[in-house]
UniProtKB/TrEMBL annotation:
Protein name: CAPSL protein
Organism lineage: Eukaryota, Metazoa, Chordata, Craniata, Vertebrata
Keyword Calcium: yes
Molecular function, one GO term: calcium ion binding
Domain (EF-hand): residue spans on this chain: 40-75, 76-111, 112-147
Keyword Thylakoid: no
Gene name of this polypeptide: Capsl
SUPFAM superfamilies found in the cross-reference section: EF-hand
Signal peptide: none
InterPro entries attached to this UniProt entry: Ca-bind (IPR051581), EF-hand-dom_pair (IPR011992), EF_Hand_1_Ca_BS (IPR018247), EF_hand_dom (IPR002048)
Keywords: Calcium, Metal-binding, Repeat
Cellular component terms per the entry's GO annotation: organelle
Length: 209
C-alpha cells in the first residue's frame, strides 16, 4: 500500500457508507457508493464505462449508462439513474460525455490539493511524458524496504508493479498510471481528509516533496 493511505482509505470507505444513509442527492449517492469501495472506486467505474464505449466516442447513451452501473454493481434504480443522466446530459442530446461525468463525480478538491498531487506526479514521472511506468519508478521509489522484496518473494519490478496497481483500476491494470488516474485516486483519499493543511503535509511526507 501507498505511504499513509491504507488507513485513510478505510476511514473514507466507512465515512462514505455512513453518509449514504443521509443523502438524497442522486449524484452524491453515486459518488458515495463509489467511495465506499475505497480510493479507486470512481476510477473503477470509469474503466467499466470505457470498456462499454465500443466505438470510442467517449460518450454513453442511457442504456449503456445503466448497464455500466449494473456491471459495477451500483445500487441505483432506473428512476435515480434517469435523474443522474439528465443532470449530465446538459444539452439534451441523449448522450453524456463520460470524462466530464467522472470529473464531476470525483469529490471536489481545492487548487492547493490539486497542485500538491501534481507535484507528486511530476516527481514520479521521471520521463515527463504524463504517464508513470515501472521505468519511471527506478531510482524514485525504493523497493528495497518492501517486505516482499526483503524476504525474496518479489523482484524489484514486481514491487514497482504492485505499487502502480494501487493507482490503476481494478479491472484493467496496465502498469501505466495517467495523471487522470493519479488525480482520481487522490480525490478519493482527499475525501477523507478535512483540511488542506493536513492533506498537503501528508503528501509532502509520503513523497518527500
Amino acid at each position: 500500500q501507498m505511504p499513509g493511505t491504507a488507513r485513510h482509505d478505510r476511514e473514507m470507505a466507512i465515512q462514505a457508507k455512513r453518509n449514504l444513509s443521509k443523502t438524497t442527492d442522486p449524484v452524491e449517492r453515486l459518488r458515495l457508493q463509489c467511495l465506499a469501495r475505497g480510493s479507486a472506486g470512481i476510477k473503477g467505474l470509469g474503466r467499466v464505462f470505457r470498456i462499454m464505449d465500443d466505438d470510442n466516442s467517449r460518450t454513453l447513451d442511457f442504456k449503456e449508462f445503466v448497464k455500466g452501473l449494473n456491471d459495477y454493481a451500483m445500487m441505483i434504480d432506473k428512476e435515480e439513474a434517469q435523474q443522474i443522466f439528465q443532470i449530465f446530459d446538459k444539452d439534451g442530446s441523449g448522450t453524456i460525455d463520460f470524462d466530464e461525468f467522472l470529473v464531476t463525480l470525483r469529490p471536489p478538491m481545492s487548487n492547493a490539493r490539486k497542485e500538491i498531487i501534481m507535484q507528486a506526479f511530476r516527481k514520479l514521472d521521471k520521463t515527463g511524458d504524463g504517464i508513470i511506468t515501472i521505468e519511471d519508478l527506478r531510482g524514485v521509489y525504493n523497493a528495497k524496504h518492501h517486505p516482499k522484496y526483503q524476504n525474496g518473494d518479489w523482484t524489484e519490478d514486481q514491487v514497482f508493479r504492485a505499487f502502480l496497481d494501487n493507482f490503476d483500476s481494478p479491472y484493467d491494470k496496465d502498469g501505466k498510471v495517467t495523471t487522470e488516474e493519479f488525480m482520481n485516486y487522490y480525490a478519493g483519499v482527499s475525501a477523507s481528509i478535512d483540511t488542506d493543511v493536513y492533506f498537503i503535509v501528508m503528501m509532502k511526507n509520503a513523497w518527500k516533496l
